[in-house]
Amino acid sequence: MLRTLAFSLIFALKSTAVFSSFLAYVPIDPSTNTTIATVLRGWDPCKLVTHPDETFAYAIDVGNECVSVIDFSTNSVVATVQVGEEPCEIAIAPNGAFAYVTNKSSDTVSVVNTSKHKVIATIPVGIEPTYVTMTPDGTFAYVTNESSDNVTVINTLMHTVIATTPEGSGSILELITPAPLTGLSLSGYCKKNRHRKLFNVINWSLDSDIDPPTHYQIFCDSILIATVPGNITSFEDRNFKRGLYSYLIVAQDQTGALATGSLTIQCN
Fold it and tell me: Do 201 and 236 fall within a single domain?
């Protein structure tokens, strides 16, 4: 017998309300207040969000440590994605490409590719991550960590942590986005040294005359490859093969404000 306590209520495709209860997700026709189907029975399903195009819903099943993908056109589960321990909250990027799931007991965030229904990255964050939200442009995800009492900032382009606020600055009720620095402009090129070894050169600058950040983080293809002082504005990435490389530079000042810039370099 279904419990009557509902955790979330959403409207999808203008005709169906979906209640999330402890034991099942049940689509209801609002015009008749009648059950259409029992879509999913699980062990403690507790959170439900819709894809921006309103074709799918993503349901967290805490007990089974997974996210179930529900097709609204058939009211059926079309995929199940295993995530971390005690999944807690889920947020979907504005463009619908990725879903971010906090795993409270794993101290991680799972990044789910919504077109392939698979985890493509697992990001370590603070202790007991709970809530997650996205910036309106989808550039950053902010995760509140309940026990470490801070906020983790994830760059969604590289699926990488770029900042963590100091302990004691977190809140499980609201997220405060630091005021951004001015933009970061990047340029770069590929060259050979005298030994005919290939390497990439990346240069950057802030768009206005302000005090330099405390440091820059340099990512290549989602991997942090270097951290340099705030007075450095150039970097050489050496010892790799021919190909296309994606770079992200992240600047951070003493207040926690961020500026980012990205570019790709084809090295042949």
Answer: yes
What does the block give as tokens for 108? 């991680």
Each residue's pLDDT tens digit, 150-178: 889 898 877 888 888 776 654 433 444 44
Separation CA 15–CA 29 (nearest Å): 6
pTM of the complete model: 0.62
Smallest Cα–Cα separation from 153: which of 115, 190, 126, 189? 126
pLDDT digit string, tens, across residues 80-112: 999 999 999 999 999 899 999 999 999 999 999
pLDDT digits (tens, 9 = 90+) for 23-38: 445 555 556 655 555 5
The C-alpha angle 75, 76, 79, rounded to 5 degrees, equals 140
- Whole-angstrom distance, CA of residue 40 vs CA of residue 66: 12
DSSP 60: E
- Residues 192, 153, single domain; the answer is no
The helix (run of H) or strand (run of E) holding residue 205 is strand 198-206
Q: Quick one: which of 222, 224, 228, 226 has its CA closest to 245?
A: 222
Total Cβ atoms within 10 A of residue 29: 12
Are residues 63 and 141 located together in one domain of the fold?
yes
